[in-house]
Amino acid sequence: MSKVCAVVVTYNRPELLLENIHALILQEFKLQTILIVDNYSNRDTLVKLQDGGYINHFSDNFVKFGGEIKSRVTNKQGEEIEFIILRLSTNTGGSGGFNQGIRYFYEKTTDDLAWVMDDDTIPHNDSLNKLEYSYELLKSHGHNVGFVCSRVLEQNLSLGYPPVFYTGNELMKYYLLKDDLLRIQNGPFLSALFTRNFVKICGLPIKDFFIWLDDIEYTGRMKDVFDNAICLSSVVIHKRGVVVDEHKISQKNFFKFQNGFRNKMFLMSEDTSIFKIPKMIRQIVIDWRTIKSSDITFTNKIKLLKSLLVGSFFFRPKREYFK
């Protein structure tokens, strides 16, 4: 049986975090470790964790400078799970949080698999059981498994974050279809079960992305080397507070688009096809039309245009790999 470390990134959403942790403890498949990466949330998150009995004490220095607190929790079978709070010294965005969480899994645990998710991901009790079964099934048939992810549903049970399916038919076998498995190229950080070997070879998510598209870039690495899949019967609920329409920019979500536009153009700039430049120009024109029609200030519109150009020509973040 594989040892699994749940890696959860959180920032100032203590109620959702507590619901997520409760769902992790109720998993039918025993977790070895629950790692909470606290992206420099305010004190309230730590207070709620203390009130919930997950940590006993934290100091003012821990709040200010970050650090690590370890404790133990008990699942519904009466088995102990190591519980770790890794508090960062600054808000590094989701990208930085996943970077640090996956690094911790690889360098400081002996667990076989990392179950990666945001704090607003609420798994069903059998979600991990079905993911781990899928991993073992793929492995038993000789597949080089990179990750297996769950089907993500929004709170209204509509499909959220549909993955990019693989165009080949290598995994379209009868024994996979009957177990609700389909091959994919990319998947979100919303219940993705990564193998230690994937992390060893592919390294860490790009922390400089800050937010948006870090999961698409990371899960797409070496997609022709690894056999990655979605298990349709493994379901999680994505309880995000506000659904961001990718075509509606506001003053409130401006900074997300600022990062997202930059990251998207960087990924497009890595295209090696002869159509790269025309595709990038077309995308800039499309996004500029969206920007112009938005209700944000003219100054912020220019900033978003700058993000498109910076991502196209100047933004070259570093990918981190293990030696």
TL;DR?
Helix content is 38%, strand content 23%. The protein is built from eleven helices and eleven strands.
Q: Fraction of residues in helices?
A: 25-40%
Give a count of the beta strands, DSSP E runs of length 2 or more.
11
User: Structural class per helix/strand content?
Assistant: alpha/beta
Beta-strand percentage? 15-25%
> In angstroms, what is the radius of gyration?
20 Å
How many domains? The number is 2
Number of helices: 11
CATH architect. name of the largest domain: Alpha-Beta Complex
Q: What is the N-to-C order of secondary-structure elements (H for helix, E for strand)?
A: EHEHHEEHEEHEEHEEHHEHHH
CATH topology of the largest domain: Spore Coat Polysaccharide Biosynthesis Protein SpsA, Chain A
Measured distance between first and last alpha carbons:
28 Å
Mean of residue pLDDT values: 92
Main sheet record:
11 strands, mixed
Poorly predicted runs are: 169-174
